Amino acid sequence: MSKVVTFGEIMLRLSPYGFLRFTQTDKLQYTFGGAEANVAVALAHLGVDVSYITKLPKNDIANAAINDLRRYGVDTSKIVTGGDRVGIYYLEKGASQRASKVIYDRAYSSISQANIGDFDWDKIFEDTKWFHLTGITPALKGNLPQICLEACKKAKERNITISCDINFRKKLWTSEEANEIMSSIMPYVDICFANEEDAETVFGIKASNTNIINGELSLEGYKEVANELTKRFNFKAVAITLRSSISASDNKWSAMLYHDNNYYFSKEYFIRIIERVGGGDSFAAGLIYSMMNNMQVQDCLEFATAASCLKHSIEGDFNRVNVDEIMTLMKGDGSGRVQR
Amino acid sequence: MSKVVTFGEIMLRLSPYGFLRFTQTDKLQYTFGGAEANVAVALAHLGVDVSYITKLPKNDIANAAINDLRRYGVDTSKIVTGGDRVGIYYLEKGASQRASKVIYDRAYSSISQANIGDFDWDKIFEDTKWFHLTGITPALKGNLPQICLEACKKAKERNITISCDINFRKKLWTSEEANEIMSSIMPYVDICFANEEDAETVFGIKASNTNIINGELSLEGYKEVANELTKRFNFKAVAITLRSSISASDNKWSAMLYHDNNYYFSKEYFIRIIERVGGGDSFAAGLIYSMMNNMQVQDCLEFATAASCLKHSIEGDFNRVNVDEIMTLMKGDGSGRVQR
Amino acid sequence: MSKVVTFGEIMLRLSPYGFLRFTQTDKLQYTFGGAEANVAVALAHLGVDVSYITKLPKNDIANAAINDLRRYGVDTSKIVTGGDRVGIYYLEKGASQRASKVIYDRAYSSISQANIGDFDWDKIFEDTKWFHLTGITPALKGNLPQICLEACKKAKERNITISCDINFRKKLWTSEEANEIMSSIMPYVDICFANEEDAETVFGIKASNTNIINGELSLEGYKEVANELTKRFNFKAVAITLRSSISASDNKWSAMLYHDNNYYFSKEYFIRIIERVGGGDSFAAGLIYSMMNNMQVQDCLEFATAASCLKHSIEGDFNRVNVDEIMTLMKGDGSGRVQR
Amino acid sequence: MSKVVTFGEIMLRLSPYGFLRFTQTDKLQYTFGGAEANVAVALAHLGVDVSYITKLPKNDIANAAINDLRRYGVDTSKIVTGGDRVGIYYLEKGASQRASKVIYDRAYSSISQANIGDFDWDKIFEDTKWFHLTGITPALKGNLPQICLEACKKAKERNITISCDINFRKKLWTSEEANEIMSSIMPYVDICFANEEDAETVFGIKASNTNIINGELSLEGYKEVANELTKRFNFKAVAITLRSSISASDNKWSAMLYHDNNYYFSKEYFIRIIERVGGGDSFAAGLIYSMMNNMQVQDCLEFATAASCLKHSIEGDFNRVNVDEIMTLMKGDGSGRVQR
Amino acid sequence: MSKVVTFGEIMLRLSPYGFLRFTQTDKLQYTFGGAEANVAVALAHLGVDVSYITKLPKNDIANAAINDLRRYGVDTSKIVTGGDRVGIYYLEKGASQRASKVIYDRAYSSISQANIGDFDWDKIFEDTKWFHLTGITPALKGNLPQICLEACKKAKERNITISCDINFRKKLWTSEEANEIMSSIMPYVDICFANEEDAETVFGIKASNTNIINGELSLEGYKEVANELTKRFNFKAVAITLRSSISASDNKWSAMLYHDNNYYFSKEYFIRIIERVGGGDSFAAGLIYSMMNNMQVQDCLEFATAASCLKHSIEGDFNRVNVDEIMTLMKGDGSGRVQR
Amino acid sequence: MSKVVTFGEIMLRLSPYGFLRFTQTDKLQYTFGGAEANVAVALAHLGVDVSYITKLPKNDIANAAINDLRRYGVDTSKIVTGGDRVGIYYLEKGASQRASKVIYDRAYSSISQANIGDFDWDKIFEDTKWFHLTGITPALKGNLPQICLEACKKAKERNITISCDINFRKKLWTSEEANEIMSSIMPYVDICFANEEDAETVFGIKASNTNIINGELSLEGYKEVANELTKRFNFKAVAITLRSSISASDNKWSAMLYHDNNYYFSKEYFIRIIERVGGGDSFAAGLIYSMMNNMQVQDCLEFATAASCLKHSIEGDFNRVNVDEIMTLMKGDGSGRVQR
User: Fold this and answer.
1) In which residue ranges of chain F is pLDDT below 50?
2) In this complex, which of B28, B31, B105 lies closest to A85 when CB atoms are compared?
3) Domains of chain E, with CATH numbers?
4) Nearest CA of chain D to the CA of A107: how many Å?
């Protein structure tokens, strides 16, 4: 009873090397990613038994996606085969004042065309302790809002802890659409993950005095947000990552956890960014791990924040760090000294 | 009055380097190709004024496609903007007994969703002498059969020479579908290009005694095919490329031209293949060039065959050879001696 | 009861790109391989449930080796952790008259230092139908001859089919050493794999009139060898791959199977070599698969030969081809025509 | 009447990847650049109709240079063919305290050997609104001082706005030579671009209290310089980029515009440098664009500064950013947040 | 009498590109390094006649190591041939809070198995002025403590200046082992190099109030350390590099020299790290050069510190900077401005 | 008295990877080569003490050239420093019917501008046994014909054996120019190397019945040529390489040696070409080595032919094979079997 299940879309990620623009190169990194797959792979690196659920077509690109998950120890045996294509996202990495750029080419992917009944949740949830999903999956529309809801209900029946990252994506749906669907899912959720924009955009819950563009964060405002979210959906905990974007190359990073009427704030890290994609997902994985291992609340938060701090030093969507590495940072050694 | 217009779909081409399989690499060549774009670029390398027509979305991947055409001197100013995505084809290069593998991910591309009226053929055909299309474009379905037909009619009104490569693609449509649509387009066509399978699959016209798998070609059979095609559609010429596949690494390559009741056969080349994709398109470009330049019939055929022979030594969809290089080979120097 | 188990050493393989020499580059391909791991990965690509057994140290290079096996679906959960290092082999790819070059740096690897008792064969062999090993593993000396013998005995007790590839490596042991150890293991073996040199070097069984350097093979001679081997060790079958080395770039490849007093010869392939390392292992995997699936004897041989023919077109130690691809070649299509 | 013409030398740029030194690698980036070509390509990215004028030999390296310009939409049809070689500059990228290093190998390039009469300025300047040149071109000596002068005269006759970047290069000529030639050209110039060293080195006009090595800039001093330059040559505007070099990795960047007796200062950016080559050229392109589009004076300056700030995040000589991206930064969002 | 001799182990260095982890790539940089080889190559770049002594096996990997030294002008003619393998170290480059990671695979290397008598020190030390070794070589155990001691004695007999970098490596030996062996060698040493941890770990000499993890350095404490070391071993000088690790991406770097009862402190540099491996070795080379050239004491220190500051901007173990580049920085220009 | 000296121009060689065309890539291989440097490096690989003489400018590109020679053990201490640039040749590798393409950019290189008196031949020729030059060096014109002549005279005075490869390059000079200059040098030459075109183009000595384009060689004709050359210049030996170009991918390769009125013909090799540049130079190095080692005449020829056969399997200008590898092939093993 220690398995984690995550469910969502794994996409082919096509990215120019280094800081090259899309129109400046003839070579692309060919990797895979997606919020829930990122959580699964990060958990596998932490030694957690994790199963990833999605739908993929029967072709070699899908095989490469499965291989990439399997390589890091994620169970892929429950992935459903069918449909026509693997969704794609093109990623151009920014630097200094130039932002990273994402082009989605994920419409008509196999998972977005999934049918009610494609997933045998009873089988999937055998021996499962935790189920994680994000707001990206219902945003793919089609039958996915209904499928997500069904999954949550089935998980609930089995007393599986459910965590959900709001993860609003404005290229996928509107605030109104998100509000409607997410409001139906959230009542099943135990642990809610949000970033600085999600709560406001999806649920209209606004942190006071925060200017996202400038990167100024009001900690008091975040308390309000977490409190308000909890009142509305009765979460066991709300975790909010606090990113202060100085530039595409430098960020400050910390997090807040609202739990049992207490507010916990993590240490803040000043980060030289190698890659920021997947930062939130690595935080979620860290928190799931630490909560499943019954760490102290403040430690849970510090573990998750340290894990996601390290993610920013790693190329690709996936956080490839182990428990020892996170513990070292969490205990205060972020000096980057060579170990030899 | 010397411009050539080609019309079709340019796709993002994603290909592992060397002979790596899709599941064996994390890097892809990021280039572009498509039968009609290939013809356009090959013609531009021959010094021909050529304009390429398609529909592409407004994003950086489409910009990269346009840049790639523009780079080689193809006029892209008439390309229509709109729709959602650039079509993709994944290409894994074969070797020895292992065949190259193509995975199409081109459904829902901008061009495949084109609307009647997207293309202002009167404007496009200004100063145009030759119009080239292939059977791939109507195979994309939607409005494309009708758009192709309209383009042919408009070209005919202006006395523009029309060439069409049958280019049957079994992953796009059935023989029956192809037969119906192509039979409506062919009456407008002056020069018909076909390979060893097209005539039979689309029009049921079979070369006697030919075994494509074994690579044995009956020249007599091809005469029948050309003759039969001409009888049916009243072509000015039928050109058939004759590929004898020994393996993915070695092919024999020659061509036949049926013109004015005469049969012409080219020299046969034994080719060490660097890349065979685009071989037929480079032949078409060679024949269009040589016919536009009023070469002797046998020379037209030899020029086109030599051009396409050289294509097999060049990476990517596009034939990047100039007239001098083709002439050198056509005149008999295929020794590959260093020029210094 | 359909699992296959293979046991041996997986090494880090470090190889210059293309045809570069060791002293000519600053970049190495970083992959993994080893005869028995190659068989395991090839079987996984054929859809077989396969478990790979070895001993690896606790470090990131070993993790990368495990990931590489896991990526292709091989069960790595029974791999034993311990020892100090991952064995290495440096490979420089030859071309034309220049031979490929292997430098071994595998002494003191974890597996070569394995202890009696490291492997719980009873657990390993649960649900197992077939056990494959090669002569390379006992050649690593230390406790490995004894461990291999124990594994064979345990397998025999469970009626598991045992196959063994003689795979003599002159850089690891002498003919005399090999003869002594292999003679103790062979009586447990059901299916024996050998190449043109093994039988003679290890057991002094010589094919008449064969000149390995010249690449001339006497088929009659091989019949004698197979017959002789069978008489000595009472094999159910002896499979011999027949490589005719024209140069490092071109080989002829076929195989013979001696089974139930009958001699079967496969089709011969003329191969343009992309990579010949792992050719014999891919043959073994093909034969194991086809025998487990109860194909006709001649079909078993043709399947294994076609599988290993295709291997020569694939980079790296592992054969990454599926059953469909092998069947296509086995049925006669080696023309390498693009599928689209 | 909206075309821009730029004239100068486009060079082959050969550069080790990353931060490797010339003596440490066997691979070079093979791109093209040169001050005036950089301005042309940047303008093309802003949607401006721009024609680039130079002289290039008839060979494939020159073709690659032309292709690179054409790829981004620059008109290359007026480039003159002739001469023997494409000029080269080798660039080694610095980091931290180590400066970037340029080795010129541009002597005897086709453009440096250009003849009086090679350029048909009447034809070149048809429909032209703006002509841009830099001090690098006359510094190539030969006939170029005279050709530049002739071009300026012809432009003046047609009421074309002329901008010139002083761009002193000490490896090409002495202060004295520069002074003499530039003093003859400057009277034709409307908009003068300079950096912190140019005015002093070429015209002996020194900003008070400025220490270039330390990167301390006295804004008052720059006012004096601009004022003095204008008095001497009667410019409509003088634009000075203000670079404060903390190290090869970090710079501060802003600019001053002197226009109509007013001094305008831009916002200052703290930049993590991906590449600083072409920074000044991207500023010039930004100012030309904004002035041609009749933005407010302060906005012209902010647009140009934001454009050139972004350039520092882009590999290669060319600024590949569009108007939207510049506007976003100009309006204050330099947070580098991912857009998705 | 101007030759320098260094003695130690040169290892194959295998490193993922950029910031990739060991488990995330299939490509490794293939270079060479080792403390004493690093000093030799750095000296060769400064124009010093330097000979490197080690033992290497007879194979192509060893040849590549020799070639790499020879390429930069190091004399390799005294390298002894024998033994079985080239030692390896795997290096994963860290970033931000993630530390670089070293995996040693150097056991059983040829040098570690060297025999007493392998090295003919009389011949090696002909015309030699300076001998440099480090604590890493005796840490390899076997006969190396004795060989190092013999070398020192032989050098002393010839009045050769001896410098030794303590360079404690906890993966190679314990503090106790180091203390015993190094205490026997140190009496022969004239110039002692140490970093912030060495003196304490090996000799129990602790800088007061220094917290290495936090990167806070007490300069007073270092005076004590240098003083104490000198008292114990009677050094002519003690040089201590002072690294303040803000993160794996940013360090402060300076050094202290204790000489003739005086304490000298260098300028401190704020460094954006490209690579920190070899930083201490480049400092040692800088000090050896400047002392051999009889610079003023403060200049010696500044030269060595500037040299090693620049090393941090260079990929690989070796410092590839020349005297001019160091002088420029030493004189205060660390602005990184392009030279053109 | 065993040293070899070679004299000529080492050029920067810039080459697209694989079979890419110049206009199709943004990356170039950055290596060095030149006929006489190729001979020097090949000899160094054979264990010969060899010194390379040229003139190079004082910059990092020249340093890289020197490093590349030094890396393989060639003595570079006599290279003269001065002049402005390193000559360049651009190389595009051909395949199948497409020939390799060379673009020279070597005018004004340091060596081509060398002064009479730059080279101290008395010092250079100390301890020298053999001097090798080629017709390329005098073809660079300027003072080089005179310098070459002087070198030959000085060598003659010292009884140094002189070998010269005619190596006619039509891009450097005309037949008439070559004839005049080479006729003055040849009387000093002992061993003359020529290929199938040189004798005719330079000296008007034609092999009967040979068609170079078709690759048909008349052995009788070559006897005539060698005989005729010897009669004219009184050579001790004439060596002619016989290349039969089937295509850019496949050649036949053998050689003839005329010595003491006897004609020797080597074995003929069928070669799959990895790189043919430097084939003749590697033959010259092989013959120099074997003659210096007093092999039997036929063995000398076979050694040189086998050495140069292997060169065709190696990337770059330089032949990187050792004596053992050549001997193995010379003794008949060209099967390319893996050694392990």
Assistant:
1) 215
2) B105
3) 3-330 (3.40.1190.20)
4) 15
